[in-house]
Amino acid sequence: MKTIKLLRIELIVIAIGIVIIGCGGKKTDSNSNNMEYLYEDPEEYDIEEETTGDLEIPFTTLPSGNITIPVKINGVTFDMMYDTGASVTMITAAEAKYMYQKGNFTTDDILNYQKFQTANGEISVGLKINLKKVELGEITLRNIEAVVVANQQAPLLLGQTVMREFGNFTVDYDKKVIRFSE
What we know:
By secondary structure, the protein is α+β, with helices and mostly antiparallel strands. It has a single domain (2-181), classed as Cathepsin D, subunit A, domain 1 (Beta Barrel). It is 18% helix and 38% strand. The protein has helices at residues 2-21, 93-101, 160-163; strands at residues 55-58, 60-61, 67-73, 76-82, 89-92, 110-117, 123-136, 139-149, 157-158, 168-172, 177-181. Strands 2, 3, 4, 5, 6, 7, 8 and 9 form an eight-stranded mixed sheet that branches. It has a three-stranded antiparallel sheet with strand order 1-11-10, with no helix packed on it. The longest helix has 20 residues, at 2-21.
């Protein structure tokens, strides 16, 4: 039963990739591991603007107790769940499609497929992508890996692929801010 469910999810994710690629984007050789462009300039991984002190990002607490913060991805602002337990940053196919239609996401940003384990232990498959620009307040990060998932009900997660770019982060529940520092 799990194998059938996993196969169904993989087929949905593949269909999403085909739809995105089929919308006039550049086709690449699926057998090549064409990720060199991510590593051409190591400086692009660094934080774009150096700041002194801490960066404070205001957050909203949902009724569930989860925290969301505003994050700008490739020029589009989303409220994303701050999830220290998520190994990757995650968006749904709806956000990827919206960014594609607005010209903020291209087929060049598609890297591969990736299996991941959800919080309830299930194994899922997502489309691994490169986010060219992720902005948290006045800080800009470049070339951040993320996963696109087919589940339209899935929350948008700000995961470790973003958080590990900072030395430390602290949640200040009194001031309702997340403090990032180097």
